[in-house]
Amino acid sequence: MQHNKVSQKAKENMMLTLFHAPQSRSSALNTLIDEMGIADRVEIRQTDIPRIDGTGHRDPANPHPEGKVPCLVHDGAVLTERGCIILYLTGLFPESGMAPKPGTPEYAAYMTWLFWYGSVMEPVLILDWAKIDHPALTASLRGQPEIVARLRAALQKGPWLLGDEYSAADLLCHSPWAWFPDGMPDDDLIRDWVARCQARPAVARSRARDAAAMAARAAA
After folding, report:
1. Per-residue CA distances from 7 to 87, 103, 137, 141, 168 (Å)
2. Pairing of strands 16-20, 71-74
3. Per the confidence metrics, is the pTM higher than 0.85?
4. FRET partner for 12 with CA separation of 20 to 30 A, picked from 84, 141, 158, 159?
5. Sheet order of strands, 42-46 included
6. What percent of the residues of the chain are helix, what percent strand, and what percent coil, each to the nearest 5?
């Protein structure tokens, strides 16, 4: 199969839609689109989801197979899961600077962080929050100490996970502690990293959009 670079003209004709529920997992994608400067290329379509507090409902217009978010639709093709969508968008728009160049050691590390987050980090944090423990889980996924150690090992080499450059890997991996700061490890290196991620202007803009959407939802 021949792989060609996406031409500028083809990019201008792309039909990209992100199904987004405010103050949810898809908020990171909303921020990413802002960081990448592609808000004019992606339609952000507000949707509803069932929430842990019992509010919300499944939106039949949302093509996610489980009615969740985020869900990205590109010319009819459906993509789900944050790491997948992040990898897809940063690959589609490499000029955004939110990912290293493919084929480099930095890109290998970048992809590893995205997949590690979804396969290990988030499940471990959810299990810890739910107070669920079992030898099979710790044997396969490990636990919070291993999560902290892996992040520390990277952050000791530079301010960001990939060294000197902020990337979408930082945006994704810091996100749980942005929403639940009380669960953040008592570690200055990680706390400072989360603070740097949260200080980015795109985060403030994304939070403001989400707050306005939630206020409108409550008033409806």
Report:
1. 19, 20, 45, 41, 23
2. antiparallel
3. yes
4. 84
5. 42-46, 16-20, 71-74, 77-80
6. 55, 10, 40
Which residue do the tokens 């992809």 mark? 111
Instruction: Write down the residue that tokens 């990277």 correspond to.
Output: 154
93 CB-near residues (< 8 Å, 6+ apart): 11, 36, 38, 41
Q: CB 85: neighbour CB atoms within 10 A? A: 22
Element (H or E) spanning 80, and its range?
strand 77-80
Q: Which two tokens stand for residue 191?
A: 């706390």
**How far apart are alpha carbons 77 and 86 in whole angstroms?**
15
Q: How many CB atoms lie within 10 A of CB 192?
A: 12
Per-residue pLDDT of the chain (220 residues), as tens digits, is: 344 455 555 555 678 999 999 999 999 999 999 999 999 999 999 999 998 888 889 999 999 999 999 999 999 999 999 999 999 999 999 999 999 999 999 999 999 999 999 999 999 999 999 999 999 998 999 999 999 999 999 999 999 999 999 999 999 999 999 999 999 999 999 999 999 999 999 999 999 999 999 898 888 7
* Cα–Cα distance for residue pair 106/125, rounded to 1 Å: 26
- Residue 184 near residue 177, CB atoms below 8 Å: yes
Helix 144-155 and helix 122-129, axial crossing angle in degrees, nearest 10: 140
